[in-house]
Design a protein that fits this description.
mainly beta, Immunoglobulin-like, 9 domains, 4-stranded antiparallel sheet, extended
């Protein structure tokens, strides 16, 4: 909308209502917050220096559609504005809804600014002059402009003094506006404001309110992470609770206190490009980052005609590309296929030398000088074994210098090489004709004129430097007299016995011997140290040749040890011979909380330093107390305890008491009776079999506790084996009728300890309906050879039925009643006899039939093509025991006690790759690439099995 008022109007003598002090409530905003908000408008920094003056401000606001200017294109900065024009500017700047018409008596519906006046009035920024009039043609004074500007950014009136002429009603608003730098200080605020002043005030308002900030773009990192960029050149990272779906998605993002709705297009995963990126290497780049689930099951094929080349995939750190490297990949055009994506063609060329570079920055009058000569290929990658010819010529002495056996130069041994001699280094690659030349001025072997030692940082994931840690980086910066950085010469790890050592002529003096026990310099000149004991160590580095000195202090702490162990009563009966979990909290000598799994317990003699040792007047059983894999403290008192007694337990670390606990320990529990069964089907059809073993039988002990019985500690008998028999851990329906089942202890059982229940074999006619046992989602992808699944696949599912009586009671069936099944969609689910198997993603209804072809039941089954991945890992036991120096071998999906069960999302055993780790190599180690655990020293340790897709499970190993 064009600004139309070009001529001067007389100011209305009546003060507009919206400028009167105290009549409008505004939100309080501190000046400090406003100063912070002012940074929001950094987008205007990109508009060049013009944005710092009124014309520049106008240009920005005009581009944003807030000011529109005059028909001739001029800004008219020296002219005045009317209240109507100012209302229009406010409405545009604050992006107000302008669909309504003004209701003031002096603003016609057809008036050019009717909508804008209505909008600012509704928002409370301008209200009118009284008598239902707005006075649209009145001009705006500086103090009126200041008042509205202050309200727009949420200021309150200020008590600060105002230098200059100002009306009483406006003083507080003007003071606030000046403080917030919305307007400059003036000698007279009652004068009419120019358009230029209104431009500057409006620019300040939108700067502080962020009104002009807009979304300029976004980047989809993955399905749950989006980065949104704004016009102020800043970015917000948005973590979504629900994954993006293919197509357009609307997300919410808050930036500088304002919420924005952003439409994000999420494309299906696709290959964006594939190209050669190194010799014998092709990189496939995707349109977005892949998640672990996306990458699971991917295979990679590189073919030229009928020949397939073996490749090794390496994913980029951001998971947007995968490099496929091969030991042999001659020049040709290849078909590159990533499973699930269309093949792409990539032209591969033979490696060519493209550049020779001499990377050394200086040469010292010292041994073992490395010139850092490298040959790069056309992809910018270094060529291994480049076959370069290197000559080093002392131009000052007119002498050629030869390299040693390692290709380095021992200049300290060269009597003719002098400090300040000019050495010319030439490197040539004969077959390509490439060469590089570089001239060095030889500096003294200890040429550093400046030494800076930095602060030694803790190792990764550590908060302090502790005794016994290796590979700490001691930052050192050496500069010679020419301002060139000097790199320390590579040196293998050397053991220290004294409190001094020398590197490249630099002498390092340590305030105490034995704190640093080894030093090394890696190929990049990085100085690394190993620390052996706790101390506050001062390190001074001195160059005797130049007098340069550097110094730093390293604080090496002793190990974190338990200082306080707060033990609590478990709140349940403590029984001899049984494990009991003891609640505890541990604090170390640095005041930090010690995780349960990090509390080390040693009950041997002598007790290892820094470990917790428990004493008790009631003996513990061997291997206790201990901390299990969950970080829980477990006690187990001697099971031979003859009578109830009080145990006094004390915890010590390095001979000092750190905790205590008093417990009442009851004597070993005895069995009272079999008191129930659970999860047992007691209605059977003839021929039906149901499992009935220790998991289904409960007992009551002498402490009134109900638990399941142990294997081989119970007996099961039937009152009539001709009706219900018990065979091989199963109840078997033999003939119609009811039999009484008696469960008792295998030894010592009496009439009083037995539990009895009835099992009924129902008549076939009593079974009124049938149902398919619930079938979870089944797999419908290809097998490992790329073929469709069959009934022989591990992913095939056997359909089973249950019967129901008229009362709705379930009946276990002889599954021979089910003769075959059908599918409503044979493209989704295949059938063979009573087995079903997935063929394609989707849903189909499976129906079960008897021998006569009568449909007994049906169920809708979902098929997924999601590749099988490890979803659940379990050790067969929560704890294993092994003797000192003994071994234990685990197996995946085979065996019994030492079995590690790995199942996929379909509940099928998954032959997957994974690895086993030990939480403490001092207690037990795991053979490289094996599942063999070897005990090292007594103690307990957490063993963790981790699959390739990071699903894991833990168990506890106790070494006796």
């Amino acid at each position: 909308m064009r600004e139309t008022s070009h001529h001067i109007f007389h100011q209305n003598s009546q003060q507009p209502k919206d400028f009167r002090g105290g009549e409008k409530k505004v939100m309080k905003k501190s000046l400090s917050l406003l100063v912070a908000i002012a940074m929001v408008f950094s987008m205007f920094a990109s508009v060049a220096a013009a944005a710092t003056d009124t014309q520049g401000n106008y240009d920005v606001l005009k581009e944003a559609g807030i000011f529109t200017g005059f028909p001739d294109g001029s800004a008219g900065l020296d002219k005045q504005m009317t209240r109507a024009e100012f209302a229009a500017v406010i409405a545009r700047a604050m992006k107000l809804d302008t669909t309504a018409k003004a209701s003031f008596a002096d603003v016609r519906t057809a008036y050019w600014a009717s909508e804008e006046i209505a909008a600012v009035a509704k928002a409370g920024y301008m209200e009118g002059v009284g008598a239902n009039k707005f006075n649209p043609t009145a001009q705006v004074s500086v103090e009126q402009m200041a008042t509205i500007a202050a309200r727009l950014v949420g200021l309150e009136q200020s008590d600060a003094a105002v230098e200059g002429k100002v009306s009483g009603w406006a003083k507080g608003w003007v003071a606030a506006a000046v403080e917030a730098k919305l307007i400059p200080a003036s000698t007279n605020y009652t004068v009419i404001a120019t358009r230029g002043q209104l431009v500057d005030a409006t620019f300040a308002v939108v700067s502080q309110s962020g009104a002009l900030i807009s979304v300029t773009g976004y980047k989809v990192v993955d399905a749950k992470n989006v980065e949104v960029s704004f016009s102020d050149k800043e970015t917000e990272k948005v973590a979504l609770t629900e994954a993006l779906k293919a197509g357009d998605n609307t997300i919410k993002v808050t930036h500088k206190g304002k919420e924005y709705s952003v439409t994000v297009k999420f494309e299906g995963l696709a290959i964006s490009k594939a190209e050669q990126t190194n010799n014998r290497e092709i990189t496939v780049t995707f349109n977005r980052a892949l998640t672990d689930a996306d990458k699971t099951g991917l295979t990679y094929e590189v073919k030229n005609g009928l020949v397939t080349y073996t490749v090794t995939p390496t994913w980029s750190a951001d998971n947007t590309s995968v490099a496929l490297a091969s030991n042999f990949l001659p020049a040709a055009e290849y078909d590159v296929t990533v499973k699930g994506f269309a093949p792409v063609k990539v032209k591969v060329e033979d490696e060519k030398a493209a550049k020779v570079e001499i990377t050394a920055t200086s040469l010292q009058k010292a041994n073992n000088q490395d010139l850092g000569v490298k040959l790069f290929n056309q992809f910018g990658k270094e060529i291994a074994n480049p076959g370069l010819s290197i000559s080093v010529y002392n131009a000052t002495q007119g002498k050629t210098i030869a390299a040693d056996a390692d290709g380095k130069y021992d200049l300290a041994l060269d009597a003719d090489a002098k400090v300040d001699d000019n050495f010319v280094v030439t490197a040539t690659h004969a077959s390509s004709g490439l060469s590089a030349t570089k001239t060095f001025k030889i500096v003294a072997g200890s040429a550093a004129t400046k030494i800076v030692l930095g602060t030694v940082a803790p190792l990764k994931d550590k908060v302090r430097i502790s005794a016994g840690e290796d590979g700490l980086v001691l930052p050192i910066e050496l500069t010679d007299q020419y301002g060139t950085k000097i790199k320390l010469t590579q040196m293998a790890k050397q053991t220290l016995s004294a409190n001094t050592f020398t590197l490249d002529g630099i002498t390092f003096m340590l305030s105490e011997a034995g704190v640093i026990d080894a030093v090394e310099v890696d190929k990049d000149g990085v100085l690394k140290i190993d620390v052996a004991k706790a101390a506050t160590l001062v390190v001074n580095a001195v160059n005797p040749s130049t007098g340069a000195v550097g110094s730093t202090t390293i604080k090496v702490e002793g190990p974190a040890v338990v200082k306080t162990l707060q033990l609590s009563n478990p709140g349940k009966v403590v029984v001899a011979g049984e494990e009991i979990t003891i609640p505890f909290a541990a604090v170390d000598n640095f005041g930090g909380q010690v995780a349960g799994k990090d509390v080390k317990i040693d009950q041997t003699t002598p007790v290892a330093a820094d470990n917790v040792n428990f004493t008790s007047n009631v003996a513990f059983e061997a291997g206790y107390p201990k901390v299990n894999g969950k970080g829980e403290l477990i006690f187990k008192f001697d099971g031979t305890l003859a009578a109830k007694t009080t145990a006094y337990i004390y915890a010590y670390v390095n001979g000092g008491q750190v905790g205590s606990l008093q417990l009442t320990v009851e004597k070993k529990a005895t069995d009272v009776k079999i008191n129930g069964i659970k999860d047992v089907q007691v209605n059977l059809a003839k021929g039906a079999k149901v499992d009935f073993d220790q998991d289904n039988i409960t007992k009551l002990d002498s402490y009134n506790r109900t638990t399941t019985v142990a294997a081989a500690t119970y007996s099961v008998t039937s009152s009539n084996a001709g009706i219900v028999d018990y065979v091989g851990g199963q109840l078997v329906g033999v003939s119609e009728g009811t039999a009484e089942i008696t469960v008792n202890f295998a030894t010592g059982g009496t009439t009083d300890t037995a539990y009895k229940f009835n099992v009924t074999v129902v008549k076939a006619d009593d079974i009124k309906t049938y149902a398919v046992k619930t079938i979870s989602t089944i797999y419908g992808g290809k097998d490992t050879a790329g073929y469709a699944l069959t009934s022989a696949s591990a992913y095939a599912v056997t359909v089973e039925l249950v019967g129901k009586l008229s009362s709705g009671t379930e009946v276990a069936l002889d599954q021979s009643v089910l003769k075959f099944v059908t599918t409503s969609d044979s493209t989704k689910i295949g059938v063979s006899g009573t087995k079903i198997f997935g063929l394609d993603e989707g849903k189909a209804t499976v129906a079960a039939y008897n021998e006569s072809g009568v449909k007994l039941a049906e169920q809708e089954v979902t098929v997924s093509k999601a590749a099988p991945v490890a979803a659940k890992v379990e050790f067969a036991k929560s704890e294993y025991t092994v003797a000192d120096n003994g071994t234990i071998t685990f197996t995946v999906n085979s065996g019994t006690d030492n079995k590690i069960s790995v199942k996929d999302q379909y509940g099928v055993d998954l032959p997957t790759t994974g690895f086993l780790t030990s939480g403490d190599a001092k207690v037990a180690t795991v053979g490289a690439g094996t599942l063999v655990v070897t005990a090292v020293d007594p103690g307990q340790v957490t063993l963790t099995y981790i699959t390739a897709n990071s699903v894991s499970a833990t168990t506890t190993l106790v070494v006796n």
